[in-house]
Amino acid sequence: MLAGLSPEGQEATALFAALRDGLQEPLAGMGTAFSSSLFGLGGALVLGFIDLQTGHAQNRFYNELEEWLSGYVSTGGAVADGEQAVPAYIEALLEQTADSLDKLQRTMQRAEGQHHGHADEATLQHLRNMDACLMRLLEDMPTHRAQLTDELRSEIRLLARTLAGGRGSGGRDA
């Protein structure tokens, strides 16, 4: 098109008018491309904002679920008047230990009755050691329970983050 324009015999205004008329069609196409680019950019910003808000909402949900679960696990469900509830397996373990201590005491009394007080010192020392070990076990149970609860909370947090990360990346790929 520009090759067809020759400055010979035409005035500058006619040359400019011909140039302007020749550029009308390409400029209209560029205007459409620019408008669609702006529309795409605006749409991407809106979708990015929505994705960010849903990600925050999902994280809040997982955090609240984690707090609720950790509160439920740490209290063992409903608790009455400031008492700390004990999980069923720990309660069963404590009952079994108490029963074992009762049986041990009865066995010791029978042994003393059979020997009429003639139990040797080594046997008595072993029984005392067993009693001391059982007492330490009972004293350490709350500490181990707290450690178990902390580990469980940590695992729940890791699971929630893993689920949040998996859902977040799965939604972006689709």
Explain what you see.
- The protein starts with 11 loop residues before the first helix and ends with a helix.
- It has three helices and no strands.
- It has one domain.
- Helix content is about 85%, strand content about 0%.
- With about 170 residues, it is mainly alpha-helical.
The total number of structural domains is 1
Q: State the shape.
A: rod-shaped
Q: Poorly predicted ranges (pLDDT <50, ≥5 residues)?
A: none
Q: Characterize the main sheet.
A: none
The N- to C-terminal Cα distance equals 46 Å
Helix content: over 70%
Mean pLDDT: 77
Q: Name the beta content range.
A: under 5%
- Quaternary structure annotation: single chain
Helix-strand pattern, N to C? HHH
SS-based class: mainly alpha
How many H/I helices? 3
Compute the number of strand runs.
0
Radius of gyration: 41 Å
Short synopsis of the structure:
This protein has helices at 12-75, 88-115, 121-173. With 174 residues, the chain is mostly helical.
